[in-house]
């Protein structure tokens, strides 16, 4: 719910309180965590399967070398997986820390919203119903 949030900060586009707007945007940004994490998990699983399928046939003759090859590739993927998870969390925290309402792309949306919602509407009463003979 949006409460009455008037104070030192001005409203966004005349009718939307900026604090309420930022609260709603931050809520939406937080919802990105789960799908982003799922995406990293899915890519990791796919890359792991690809690395196992792409191993050269010559390695089958050398079991120790093949096992070491698998260990190194799995270790590298795991390290990148952890780094990707950390980066996604950092990006979400960055986005939550500051909502840039002065960005040019955002200002264009503000003009559209202002024209749509802020300007007074021309409401006219509907014409009276006509009686049928």
TrEMBL record:
InterPro entries given in the database record: Dynamin (IPR022812), Dynamin_stalk (IPR000375)
GO cellular-component term (any): microtubule
Superkingdom in the source lineage: Eukaryota
Annotated GO MF terms: GTPase activity; microtubule binding
Pfam families (UniProt xref): Dynamin_M
Domain Dynamin stalk: start-end pairs: 2-107
Stated name of the protein: Dynamin stalk domain-containing protein
């Amino acid at each position: 719910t949006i409460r009455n949030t008037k104070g030192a900060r001005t409203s966004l586009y005349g009718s939307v309180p900026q604090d309420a707007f930022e609260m709603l945007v931050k809520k939406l940004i937080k919802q990105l965590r789960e799908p982003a994490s799922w995406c990293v998990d899915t890519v990791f699983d796919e890359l792991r399967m690809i690395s196992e399928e792409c191993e050269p046939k010559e390695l089958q003759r050398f079991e120790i070398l093949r096992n070491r090859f698998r260990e190194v590739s799995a270790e590298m993927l795991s390290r990148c997986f952890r780094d990707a998870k950390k980066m996604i969390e950092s990006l979400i925290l960055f986005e939550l820390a500051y909502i840039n309402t002065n960005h040019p792309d955002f200002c264009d949306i503000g003009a559209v919203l202002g024209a749509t919602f802020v300007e007074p509407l021309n409401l006219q009463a509907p014409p009276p119903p006509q009686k049928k003979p």
